[in-house]
User: What shape does this take?
Amino acid sequence: MVSHSMEDVARSAERIAVLNEGRLYALGTPDEIFSKTQELIDMGLDAPQTARLAEALRQKGCKVPNDIYTNERFIEWFRGLKHV
Assistant: This one.
């Protein structure tokens, strides 16, 4: 599958190849690839919205796990937090 929709890729793919300027940049599982959200963004590539949200929270000091890149994983992580 070739796609520019990272949400589709995050939900469907078992392995992802990331190309940058015609060269293979990374090859791995969605967990491995989307744990590099900031690197993808810095290259001008897209990342799932949930991965971008998780990265923004990390940059604000929240301890969000690197494997958060789908809504389902975000909800599961959020529900596990101790709320005041």
About this structure: The chain has a mean pLDDT of 90. Residues 17 and 73 are 22 Å apart (CA to CA).
